[in-house]
Predict the 3D structure of the following.
Amino acid sequence: MTGFLLAPTAIATQIMLGPSILDGAIGFSYPAALAAEQNSSGFQTITSEQLSQMLPRKDFFFVNVHIPYEGQIDGTDAFIPYDKIAQNLDKLPADKRAKIVLYCRSGRMSEIAAEQLSKLGYLHVSHLSGGMIAWQASGRALTEH
């Protein structure tokens, strides 16, 4: 019986702390402690609402890392497959202090790419939580390239 009680607790902990495609959608936001933990990982997670406020005063390089291509958010600067990000550094700003925002369809590929760029020394990398799914769920549109 004890093992049964531990399993749901472990699952609940993972659900509460782990990233999800719903992050940033339907008003979900990270607790401050989790956001601080993400900052220590070398990259940040932003919501669709935060991105929509950033785009009008765009001061960052905006990259769609989803494969295969399934549309994009207006203002995208480049399409670089998430699993080829390290081989395409020439497509990114040369200054590793430049702000870079990554996104994909659900947030998972952009999270992987953000972690990779952070390990390569990029200092201001963010990724869109929930990706294009969350972007559309918040009432915003995608465009085709």
